[in-house]
Amino acid sequence: MSETEYSHEPVLLHQSVNHLITNKDGVYADVTFGGGGHSRCILESLTSNGKLYALDQDEAALKNANPDSRLILIKSNFRYLKKYLRYYGETKIDGILADLGVSSYHFDAYERGFSFHSDAPLDMRMNQDQEITAEDIIMNSSEAELANIFGNYGEVTNAKKIAAQLVKDRKQIRFSRCQFFADWAAPFIYGKRNKYLAQLFQALRIAVNEELQSLQELLEQSLDILKPGGRLVVISYHSLEDRMVKQFLKQGKLEEDPHDMFGKQTKQFKLIVKDAIVPDEQEIKINPRSRSGKMRIGERI
User: Range of 153's domain?
Assistant: First the structure.
């Protein structure tokens, strides 16, 4: 399926763009271009004076772009957003949109190794130019590292047990295929098989692509990148990301202590909505992937 078309149904499309755009002549960044749906909607909302920087680390995603003089495409992880904006001479912009997680394309393109239903290599790289794959994580990480990956990134309840057996078995077995790893994990499954395996594979995907580290860097950079009044709109799909975004927008930093050395609040954003916005029943019916989506919006103070 190497020719799988890159398709991705944008989640909370109009809600996200409506909250993002505060200046129709402004400069914005869509840091997860994907299928291009959010970017197209943003460009439709801007005047001819507006500008949009669109980032994606997956070469396949960038092929979705339609020619537009206002669109600047960048093949990169969004953790490097600040660097690229400086390269293009931008010091402050009006808004950042991030639709996190993995697209339907990555699951449909079995050869990319994101799905436990496939007999593909254990790959899971969003950026095909990077070296580390899911196979490398499984075969080379320590027992403690694997337990941390499965427990924290996948919220797998028996993470220590599966990590210990994995380290033991990999001395005789090469874990190189998705289906083989899924079958090997069968004796450890608690509850529903598909849910457990989804958590296990999610954990590996997050580790391979350093998703939480990248999100942390993006959030911290937003403080320097956004103009006063600029919007940060983030759509997340699992609790780890959502907790991080929620805390950052509320406190202006990711540490637990929300005060500076003088005891003052370090708040950097005004919450546009108090709670996360979630898809309605109609959107979930059309796009089941949206079921777990949560959108949070902050305005730079």
Answer: 111-209
Question: Which of 180, 209, 238 is the endpoint of a domain?
Answer: 209
pLDDT digits (tens, 9 = 90+) for 165-174: 999 999 999 9
User: What are the residues facing 298 on neighbouring strands?
Assistant: 232, 271
CATH code of the domain in which 189 resides = 1.10.150.170
pLDDT digits (tens, 9 = 90+) for 76-86: 999 999 999 99
Instruction: Indicate whether 137 and 271 sit together in one domain.
Output: no
Task: Say yes or no to pLDDT of 104 above 70.
Answer: no
Q: How many domains does the chain have?
A: 2
Against a cut of 0.90, is the pTM above it?
Answer: yes
State mean pLDDT over 265-282. Answer: 93
Helices (H), the chain: 13-20, 37-45, 59-62, 81-87, 104-108, 134-140, 143-148, 159-169, 178-184, 193-209, 211-225, 239-251, 281-286
228: amino acid identity, one letter = P
Q: Which of 155, 301, 138 is nearest to 232 (CA)?
A: 301
Cα(92)–Cα(277) distance, integer angstroms? 26
Whether residues 100 and 216 fall in one domain? yes
Q: What is the CA radius of gyration of the chain?
A: 20
Order across the sheet with 226-236: list the strands.
Answer: 71-75, 51-56, 27-30, 93-99, 226-236, 294-300, 269-271
Q: Torsions phi, psi of 179, nearest 5?
A: -65, -40
Domain contains 295: yes
Residue 139 sits in the same domain as residue 88: no
